[in-house]
Fold:
Amino acid sequence: MSYQAIKFQREGSIARITLARPEAANALNFAMGEELHEVAQICAKDAGIRAVILDAEGKLFCAGGDVMAFAEAGDALPATLRRLLDSFHPAVETLSAMNAPVIASVQGVAAGAGLSLLSSCSFVIASAKASFTMAYTGIGMTPDGSATYYLPRQIGLRRAEELMITNRRLSAAEAVEWGLINQYVAADELTSTVQSLADKLASGPTIAFGRTRQLLMDSFDNNFSQQLKAEEEGIVAMGSTRDGLGAIAAFKDKQAIEFKGE
Structure:
């Protein structure tokens, strides 16, 4: 299957989604939004996919929305934005909710929608050369792509508002300090570091990974009793999975635990 704005490939139990508009700074356009939604659904529905790598071609990870297309829209800008988000937001929601963890590999600038996309990933590993900025209010817009949901939870309300109002640019080191990303590595170590994590996650209990992420997200909205109940239902459900039953039996018999993602 061919795509215009992304590349998608399967390497065993690991899927790779690559933003592939380097000539346009990997800016989000209609094609990219629609194609991200399509491949996100593939990853979510295929139980054989147990980890996803999200990366990009070129020097920049993603410069955000395609501002040139926005300018060309003129008075039709509201409809243009609506059409774009009608595919991009479902893509982000699907990537956020599926069992397979998504690992973002950031080689350069992540701005606007690019940074929003990162905020919905399970892990973000960046090159030391990468940088991060919201950029939306710089063109009179407000954030989209899940940024106002995830960033306050990940870095706190004060810092999230600072990023969104001032468009401060964070270096990779600052992004780690703020809790925006997990780690940064030398540029020539990025690919191998991300691949190593993907290999590890792809051999883990995929269903438990997804349920754990959902528990963490729900914890911001649940009260204490509700969260305890959600934890109860979660671990009970894992007790009926092949991975849960098999791991308990392997532990009892002092055998190596081998997860199947089932």
Q: What stands out?
A: The first strand starts at residue 6 and ends at 11.
